């Protein structure tokens, strides 16, 4: 019930704000689509490879990404997990 009450309170507050100052909400910002970062797309591709147990292909993909974009913690962590899984 607390979630419902919070949702209803938010709706009422936004409605009151729109009645008092209709230009208070930046509609251009609200309508602006956020693009998915390239690193997120690349992680998705790598996770798909891991789902197919294509460890070598995933490692090659990470290496190419790091050559083009530099090192990234998430990709280093993925490499660590792949190497750890291959040892088992």
Can you describe what's shown?
This protein is mostly helical and about 90 residues long. Helix content is about 75%, strand content about 0%. The protein contains five helices and no strands. The protein has helices at about 1-20, 25-30, 40-50, 55-70, 75-85. Helix 3 packs antiparallel against helix 4 and helix 4 (about 55-70) runs antiparallel to helix 5 (about 75-85). The longest helix has 19 residues, at about 1-20. It starts with a helix and ends with a helix. About 5% of the residues are buried.
Which key phrases capture this entry?
elongated, mainly alpha, 77% helix
Task: Write a short abstract of this structure.
The protein has helices at 2-20, 27-31, 38-51, 55-69, 73-87.
N-to-C span: 47 Å
Mean pLDDT: 86
**Alpha-beta classification:** mainly alpha
Q: In one word, what is the shape?
A: elongated
> What Rg do the Cα atoms give?
22 Å
Q: What is the string of SSEs from the N terminus onward?
A: HHHHH
Roughly what fraction of the amino acids lie in strands? under 5%
Q: Helical content, roughly?
A: over 70%
Number of helices: 5
Unreliable residue stretches: none
The biggest beta sheet, please? none
DSSP, total strands: 0
């Amino acid at each position: 019930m607390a979630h419902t009450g919070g949702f209803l309170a938010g709706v009422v507050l936004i409605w009151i704000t729109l009645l008092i100052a209709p230009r208070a909400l930046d509609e251009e910002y609200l309508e602006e689509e956020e693009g998915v970062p390239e690193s997120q797309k690349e992680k998705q591709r790598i996770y798909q490879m891991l789902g197919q147990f294509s460890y070598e292909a995933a490692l090659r993909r990470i290496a190419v990404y790091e050559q083009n974009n530099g090192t990234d913690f998430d990709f280093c962590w993925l490499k660590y997990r792949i190497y750890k899984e291959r040892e088992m």
